[in-house]
Amino acid sequence: MQESEKIKLGISIGDLNGIGCEVVLKTFEDARMLDFCTPIIFASNKVISFQKTELGIEINYNGIQEVSKALDGKINVMNVWKDTPEITFGEATPQGGEFALKSLVAAVDALKKDEIDVLVTAPINKNNIQSKDFNFPGHTDYLAKELQGESLMFMVTDDLKVGLLTDHVAVKDAPAAINSKLVKSKIKTIENSLKMDFGIRKPRIALLGINPHSGDNGVIGKEDDEVLKPVIKELMDAGHLVYGPYSADSFFGSDGYKNFDAILAAYHDQGLIPFKTLSFGKGVNYTAGLRKVRTSPDHGTAYEIAGKGKADHSSFKEAVFTAIHIFRNREEYRELTSNPLKKQKLKPTR
Fold this sequence. Notes:
By secondary structure, the protein is of the alpha/beta class. The protein is built from 10 helices and 12 strands. The protein has a 12-stranded mixed β-sheet with strand order 3-4-2-1-5-12-11-6-7-10-8-9, sandwiched between helices. The longest helix is centred in the C-terminal third of the chain and has 25 residues, at 314-338. The two termini are 29 Å apart.
């Protein structure tokens, strides 16, 4: 793809009763966004018309029946269904999950067929979307199955990148789920992503400890000594720039994270609480390790403000720009690594 070509950016609409439609429409209410990509929203004309009227968002869109009919310079709505779903803002309904899944399935199918270049997903409700076709704790696991990769939940901004060893796993089950094989796999995925997706030649990665104070030499749990430390030593001996385990309670407060290209947290809240605190609502959830690019905002359905026009679309907008940026970086990486004579043009490391 030439630099001048518009990236076809697919959007799954998420739960219709949440803020998904609102943040999508607010993002593309700014016509300048159409200079960067050709958005294709997988939903229906009726749904988008209802949402924009209810929310008072001034946009025009182009309804299509085939992805190939999408027009550059327009907001395109791919009509996935003919039904008229009942939209009840702020409520978790079975129908909300049903249509969120229809949108996601259609968008992922288009991604697999190369009809779209990247996918940005609006928030789903992980409970009401469950069905015989979706038995996963979230987007990440579903996409790993559909796109056949070793997925990594990677929360990113320009200055902070946090991956998770375990993502949607109960806190009580996280330590038992962490083993040498898992750590090596996640480190490999995060290293490859930093090189291919973010242009970092020799990434430096920090691991956070599993237990408070990384176990205090076994006084507060032995997992850090028995699992993390041996793996870190093995990886370091093999030439990987992997450090830790660091005590999570002081790592972010001391600005220690600024010395690394990415941080790998042991479990969900250990990584996401500091990430969301420091990213000020502009963080992006990126599914690294897949053959296709998928991003999403770092928030959920926010039922409490749905339909009130109060949703901040900053994170969704950042998710759009991040998807475009990663797609371009991957193209450049493939070109440079397939042609040895161009390797000297790779971005210099720190």
